[in-house]
Amino acid sequence: xxxxxxxxxxxxxxxxxxxxxxxxxxxxxxxxxxxxxxxxxxxxxxxxxxxxxxxxxxxxxxxxxxxxxxxxxxxxxxxxxxxxxxxxxxxxxxxxxxxxxxxxxxxxxxxxxxxxxxxxxxxxxxxxxxxxxxxxxxxxxxxxxxxxxxxxxxxxxxxxxxxxxxxxxxxxxxxxxxxxxxxxxxxxxxxxxxxxxxxxxxxxxxxxxxxxxxxxxxxxxxxxxxxxxxxxxxxxxxxxxxxxxxxxxxxxxxxxxxxxxxxxxxxxxxxxxxxxxxxxxxxxxxxxxxxxxxxxxxxxxxxxxxxxxxxxxxxxxxxxxxxxxxxxxxxxxxxxxxxxxxxxxxxxxxxxxxxxxxxxxxxxxxxxxxxxxxxxxxxxxxxxxxxxx
Length: 389
What we know:
The structure is a single chain. By secondary structure, this protein is α+β, with helices and mostly antiparallel strands. The chain folds into three domains: 3-126, Rossmann fold, CATH 3.40.50; 137-151 and 226-365, 2-Layer Sandwich (D-amino Acid Aminotransferase, Chain A, domain 1); 157-223, ATP-grasp fold, A domain (Dna Ligase, domain 1, 2-Layer Sandwich), CATH 3.30.1490. 32% of the residues lie in helices and 27% in strands. The longest helix is centred in the last third of the chain and has 20 residues, at 349-368. It is globular and about 60 Å long.
């Protein structure tokens, strides 16, 4: 009997469409001889759906039509099995059963630990990081604070809440000036370069911060790195074992790699549904072996420190003259699952997905070996005023 794999994607995130692209890429590449695939789509209003209509990228040109023709479901545990259940006015029906899920979601409300928490509550095995690890990977500020405690190199920065800036704008503009222009303005919890701006003077910083505040309540301002080279490394594994991919050097026509650079390109490509594959890159990165080895080892260290699981991509900034490198951020569920880095490392996409599923099942077994509950019930002898002694 084939293992039933649910692929969860979408969500109430500004990276909703990117999640759709990443998920359908993965579904196309999963070994259908080993696994039955069940698509599980979370709409922008947080309803869950399944159905064959979700398997064709062309159908997502009209999102309203997609959900109209898909089957609305809940993922829940029924008689010790994990099921997608459809509820009508008077009846409920099990539409599909699922053994393990691969969350391929990006951004707030899903990748940030929200979805992991729901999957943990149900108890189903899943091929991504747990609640805390997902949250740490999403919050650029808390992540840097952890890096500081573990001597992981990161870019100099300041941060603030939206209300702090709005109440004391001049104070924070002075802090940015002290940090030194040019800087990068970022919402703390978004990805895919959404809301991120390069600025080299105060008036542009004000505009960039005002935009960032529309996306997030926490804002981070980072010092720009001179003589910049951007490279990425993917890591596969769990807390027990980590494997690093080859490095890629990402190219951009802008001061930072933008959302357009990553997902849209120059508009000349016939098939634009390529996700991160669309990005201009050099693989392997054109940097020397010593820095390459250091970045690979740092990537595995970051993966383990944050207790990540499955596959991630860790982004770096390098000063090409001083050879100093800095961790920019980890992507706990990277666009396109960074499969192109693993293919360049000699691991085909279907093999990568197979290993992710096996890691999820192993993590599930490891977790179930731990004591998480007691069979005794202290409420049995409960009386008003306390427990009977």
